[in-house]
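During the first year of the project, the team set up a workflow for recording each protein of interest as an amino acid sequence followed immediately by a discrete structure-token representation. This format lets reviewers and collaborators read both layers of information side by side without switching files. As required by the reporting guidelines, we include two representative entries from the current panel. The first entry is reproduced here exactly as it appears in our internal archive.
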Amino acid sequence: MTDFFSGIAPIKYEGADSTNPLAFRHYNPDEVVMGKRMEDHLRFAIAYWHSFAWEGGDPFGGQTFVRPWHPQDQMATAKIKADAAFEMFDILGQPYFCWHDADIRPEGDTFAESLKNFEAIIDYFGEKMSTRKVKLLWGTANMFSHRRWMSGASTNPDPEVFAYSAATVKTCMDATMKLGGENYVLWGGREGYETLLNTDMGRELDHMGRFLNMVVDYKHKIGFEGQILVEPKPQEPSKHQYDFDAATCYGFLQKYGLENDVKLNLEQGHAILAGHSFEHEIATASALGVLGSIDMNRNDYQSGWDTDQFPNNVPEVALAYYHILKDGGFTKGGTNFDAKLRRQSLDADDLIAAHVGGMDICARGLKAAAAMIEDGGLDTALAERYAGWDKPEAQAMLNSDLGSIFDKVTGEGINPAPKSGRQEILENYVNRFV
């Protein structure tokens, strides 16, 4: 036990009229939305790294947080950090958490020493989970922070780094399965390039594709029933990352025969860096059949880098969950908060309040999305807009050829008149619910 969260009671649902900053106003886990408990729709997970491993630095300044588990280079403080993490899980009552290996254990001088530390912490997690309801949404490997990864992991020009990467992912997959994790995520933070002058892109993509096939093969070998997820991001820290966005990732998966084995873990902040909206990335993944899970954080629209902030925009969140619900909702995926406090937010209650607010925003967005689906206005508008394609002659045209279509246009004198897309009316419609 620690005293970091001393005096902070478990968070309760108090309703929309509550003014208590440490109470849920909209997130009621047992509220039924579209026939399912809210908790089971949203499947919230706390991200271990930003909540506990991040020290408050930014590209222009160092550590601002002083925590009982600092410095994070000893097993003793790693266990203190775990104690604090599970105390926060008890306070918030969210059903899941997630981690990178490097965030939960100190780095050793050798792979064997790091693995020993990692396995000890996994056992420590298992003991704590055995007496709690919290489960593991996903695990992943940090293959971007240490200097060994400076030129990538699976795409590294040094085959020894590729080997180190494979061994690292194997251990993290083993640990994820041991803790009952429901997904395993790969985020290639440095799987890209800084300059093409020293990059053989074709070779690197082939190595990355082979690596991911190895991951899928190992999943089946050990009987892991969870999803394998790739998380798209266009840039930062690399100039150009190979997993740029949902569409790029799908093309990569198709090229290497993985489109039926791997899904995507989408992040709002990464969508913004790619020049997209979050709803675009979700709708793209849904249309391609690879929507797996989401990182619910946002960027500052006035900053050109990944600021990892808690969600605070109900309309954006509502449209995200609209497409998730239309896709059938999460199965093994969920909503993790890959978000961090601002470096001036130093106190324990800041960390709790940030998650309370984020969970409330998601709950409001979910209810708005469900209300839009139940009302059916957007479905009706789409049906009307594409009604012409439901006619037999339109469907027949898709199985025709250019010459036959030419004859039809010239023979019937077809001269289509433009029709309104009714965008403003639809935007006003959405605003009725948010």
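The second entry, processed by the same pipeline in the following quarter, appears below.
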Amino acid sequence: MNSTVLKTDLALPADWRDFVALTKPRVMSLVVFTGLCGLLAAPVTLPPVLGFTAILCIALAAGAAAALNQWYEADLDALMKRTAKRPLPDGRMDRTAALHFGVGLGAFSVLLMGLALNWLAGAVLAGSILFYVVIYTIWLKRRTPQNIVIGGAAGAFPPLIGWAAATGDVTLLPLLLFTLIFLWTPPHFWALSLFVRSDYAAAGVPMLPVVSGHRVTRQQIALYTLPMGVAAVAPWPLGLTGWLYGITASALSIIFLALSLRVLANRATEPAEMGPEKKLFAFSIVYLFAVFGALVADHWLLA
């Protein structure tokens, strides 16, 4: 990595807010929510203390992965306007402190999950951290425009972990939830990358809009939306959920598809501030919260 662009040689002692910022709290909220939904949709109800412990471990692991991501990508973050004020590129924290914080947080979360719940959940939790840091951050992100396609698996683990924490096993429903998030990640992230393309270009990150342009990216968004919708609805006809989830997932997926087709039809060379790309990105977050919320409501109200 090129460290000459960083200010870490003059880094000030970090305070607690910098360590919190390393965990990417806004991103963590979606990770924790989908993990909680996987836990609550499982056929086993954990005692509250164990349920809280499982979700705490998922949150700590997500924070650890984010911290290690920022430790490794400090040079890239310094080159992009939207990330230049993070603790490392802004010189508020030493890189060694970020590395120790990420490793310590990750190791603690895995050990706690294994000891308090079960080692299958602990193993999947460890795998999610390693996948995000090693496979996505270190191996894929700087090398291929398919980085977010393969790397998207890292964000798909939480419902699988929540389910495994409750049951000690993995069945078809959590695998379908994993697949849903895996297929949701490319259109969600590419919609974002379309209107921050210049940031990625400046940092030399080969995101799809930088390498292949707007038209191909818009086509890929629409193409990934179709199997994503199938994965979202599939638990209903397979008898794994009830009508409440099925109808909600179907309606939301239709809206997602309609928005992706508006993105596909857009011919602007630079996405507008309130254009279809921005609207799809905003809805994609609502979509995942709503689909997983419907999963839990379906399980508890129709069981």
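For the second entry, the following points were noted during internal review. The chain has 14 helices and no strands. The CA atoms of residues 249 and 291 lie 6 Å apart. Both points are flagged for discussion at the upcoming steering committee meeting.
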